[in-house]
Amino acid sequence: MSKTYRAGLIGCGRMGATIDDEVRNRPHSDLFLPYSHAAALAACPRIEFAAVCDPVAEKAQAAQQRYGVASAYTDYQEMVLKERLDLVCIATRPGPHAETTIFAAQHGVAGIYCEKPLCNSMRQADAMLEACRQHGVKFNYGTQRRYTPLYRHLRQLCDEGRIGQVQAVVASCGISVAQWGHTHAADMMLFLAGDGEAEFVQGNAVTAESDWEGQRLKIDPRITSGYVCFKNGVHAYLVAAGGYEFEVSGAKGKLRTLSNGVDYTWRMADEYGEFREVEGPKIPIASGTLKGIEDLVATLDSGTDTQGSIELACRSQELIFGIIASHRQGGRRVELPLAERDLSIAPEGY
């Protein structure tokens, strides 16, 4: 019989417990639902959803009642120590992510699903990485697209060489804020480029000198462009065009997601170099949040790597900080690993 894992939720706000209500009546809501951490935990048959926590007691109690959870707390450390949890979902603001992850790792939690953005600085990311490695914690990052069937299918086509050697990834994700929006774009550029290390980044954002306090950026700035040069030779571009669509160009073909992952196109070059659409399999739509938690459960069973590991989460997050560092230096290339580990994006309340 398969083991059931005891899970707890830390943070009962929008992404933690209520965002499902915002998308339920949207077209293609099946792209998202179950969307919140709580809804996905409740939908996973391998999970015993044991406890919730929020410093605002009313939020914790509302989530407890909504999802039929046995216990509610206002102190996450008390919850972790008392409930003997195998897995926690962290859906707070990013500021507490590092200390929460480290505490959970140090006190017996075997699996962590952490909402994006990962943290407020690479110094915090380094500490999260060290804690998870030291204690053997399985980790998945809350950039949901990388867990869904459609994006995994495109990645498989790339890995199998079906479009030839991958040359470029273009993320058409509009002008959005770095941490709250473009952490998704950065992670997809990384994922579709093969999840390899980046050599350097360049980019531009919208900031004023008054937005800085030393190495701390007091706003979550809008990114207008970004470029990543990966060590495997793939070039990735974040452009201002909207639509949340991603294109992967290879030596022999092109793949493009449509309308935020509703569908995709696959084109191959003919003998004259003209790209013609070919028929690929229809890929089912599924919740990325649920798939990410299911993947975490599967790796707790097997001991294998997760699809959105702490190493990949740090790599993804570093692209964002690198773009901001480049912008502050007038758009010059910034070598990775980022030297400025204390550069932070930390508005009040983050």
What does this structure look like?
With 350 residues, this protein is of the alpha/beta class. The chain folds into two domains: 161 residues, NAD(P)-binding Rossmann-like Domain (Rossmann fold), CATH 3.40.50.720; 167 residues, Dihydrodipicolinate Reductase, domain 2. It has eleven helices and 19 strands. The strands form three sheets. Strands 7, 8, 9, 12, 13, 14, 15, 16, 17 and 18 form a ten-stranded mixed sheet that branches. Strands 3-2-1-4-5-6 form a six-stranded parallel sheet, sandwiched between helices. It has a three-stranded mixed sheet with strand order 10-11-19, with no helix packed on it. α6 packs parallel to α7, α7 runs antiparallel to α11 and α9 crosses α11. The longest helix is centred in the C-terminal third of the chain and has 19 residues. It is globular.
Counted up, domains total: 2
User: Strand portion, in percent?
Assistant: 25-35%
Low-confidence runs (pLDDT<50, min 5 residues)?
Answer: none
Mean of all residue-level pLDDT scores = 97
Largest sheet descriptor: 10 strands, mixed
The named CATH superfamily of the largest domain: Dihydrodipicolinate Reductase, domain 2
